[in-house]
Design goal:
The chain is about 30% helix and about 20% strand. By secondary structure, the chain is of the alpha/beta class. Strands 3-2-1-4-5-7-6 form a seven-stranded mixed beta sheet, with helices on both faces. The N terminus is likely disordered.
């Protein structure tokens, strides 16, 4: 396990990620209907971009991150919301969670975890009966690039890999690739020497966000690829 005091999760992504809106709305809308109205755990909240959105849909939200400073900032930013608890933990640490939860949301988290099978088992253990797991992760190892290394990714995933990873503990209800146009953009960036926090990367992210209201419709036309993959699964009994 990592030492939380040494991890800065907010540095594993471009700073421009906090300055875009269309992309985050698109991601959230893709899984929000699968969140149960009970207790939810958001693992690796980072900048807290989705925390406020999730909190509106549940009775209680547990916001967690390995980065102590990230939790402090999110807590200050969301201090007016009274149904959120905050936990500093590495992945899923059952000793820090006082009760089981109904939904786990892990957005761009599992690719940072070396032993993803252990992570999945921990999610299973902390979920209530018929609990739900939502995973959003980078797709296709062919896209693995310098950006992934700078972000601390161990791997990217396919739907087949998730079927194998989840088969013992979860029933997959929905799963699909996400951001089909982004697949080609990431493939081009694979050969770029630009840093994840460079000005050119920031500009590219902001421009793409402006185009998402139009580009997102390509996801209905191109079924077999995507920059990311979304998995929505239910705990097996």
């Amino acid at each position: 396990m990592n030492n939380p005091s040494q991890i800065k999760s907010r540095e594993t992504m471009s700073n421009a990620i906090t300055q875009i809106t269309h992309y985050h709305d698109w991601v959230f809308n893709s899984f929000k209907d699968f969140i149960k109205n009970g207790i939810a755990l958001e693992i690796g909240s980072g900048h807290g971009i989705y925390s406020k959105k999730i909190a509106k849909l549940v009775h209680k939200l547990i916001v967690s991150d390995i980065d102590v400073r990230a939790i402090e900032i999110i807590k200050e930013h969301l201090k007016s919301i009274n149904n959120i608890d905050y936990v500093v933990m590495d992945g899923v640490d059952n000793s820090k969670l006082p009760f089981q939860v109904d939904t786990i949301i892990a957005i761009n988290i599992i690719e940072h975890i070396r032993n993803d099978d252990t992570f999945i088992k921990c999610c299973y253990d902390i979920l209530n009966l018929n609990g739900r797991l939502i995973i959003f992760a980078p797709a296709f190892q062919i896209l693995f690039s310098n950006y992934d290394r700078q972000a601390g990714h161990y791997r990217r995933y396919t739907k087949s890999q998730f079927r194998i990873l989840l088969q013992n503990h979860f029933t997959i209800e929905k799963m699909h690739y996400f951001n089909k146009i982004g697949f080609w953009g990431w493939l081009v960036n694979k050969y770029s020497k630009s840093h994840i926090n460079s000005k050119s990367t920031h500009s590219q992210i902001k421009l793409y966000d402006k185009l998402i209201p139009f580009l997102k419709y390509f996801d209905y036309l191109i079924p077999f690829i995507g920059q990311s993959v979304i998995v929505m699964a239910t705990k097996k009994t």
